[in-house]
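Checklist before submission:
- one chain only
- standard amino acids only
- sequence pasted in full

Submission:
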Amino acid sequence: MERKLENLAFEIGSPDFRLQFDFRSNLIVDQDNPILIQKAWRDHFAGKSCWQRGKDAGKAYLGVAHGEDAMTWNVFRSLQVEGPRGLEVVEAVLGLSTIESVLFWGCDADRHGENQQLLSILLRVIDGQLKGTMTEPDLVLVTEHEAAFVECKLKLSGNQSPWKAQGSGAEKRMDSYVETGFSELKEFRHWKEIYRINWENIYQIIRQYVYATLMGRVLQKQPIVVQVINAEPAGVLRKFYSPVQECPLNRGGMFRDLVTWQEISKSVKSSPLPCANKVASQITKALDAAEKKSEHGSGKLTSIYQSRPN
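Returned file contents:
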């Protein structure tokens, strides 16, 4: 039933109502950081049921209990705010040199502008050529020697690749990368015959490859691509990822071995960090929830991010 305008202000003014849409209770660290508001504007559920109690439309991905976005922030931001000791855990488990800056979804939570500006310019100049959403790296770690793009995955939808292209614009973007100068991607339509790779199943990885390469060249650092996954469906994921590691694009070991949340949890728990138990607990809860998670609702709700073409 359609709500009257005068009731909306009263409804939204209710703390109980706002609590449904306030993602901060789902985060364990730095909940009021400004970049989280931008993230919530960009990535949230959409649908016609925005004003119905108990519905998800209008809710930010960050508010999804034990979701990938919250997991990324809760784990890596918690370690970052611990300072060098926390970052040493990240460096060790991901095999990286000393971390100089961290970008969450393209933004620097500590408001250091240079690397986030560089990434923003690269995205706008390349992906900005075409309509639709630009790529949004989960995590970019600029280290003493590397420009590392980290993709964080938690759940698996059947036997589908989590790096699969979404929407009809992916092929145009692949062509645009070739036109930009990535001639090694020229034969991507024939990779199935050449490398046993269906390019659509690794589309997100290719985007990471493109931007890690560009950022590495500008900063004169080694480009690195890392996938953080749940260990439970690792066998399913390796069938998509192993051919990528075996193909000529993997120059200098750019595509690192899969890293699991379980490995990260073990490293965190063995550290003397004050946040260790809290972070490890978050990982455990998220992994448990991922096992039990079924398809969300009837499928009528979509996310703003996923509903836009690639």
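Reviewer check: The chain has 13 helices and eight strands.
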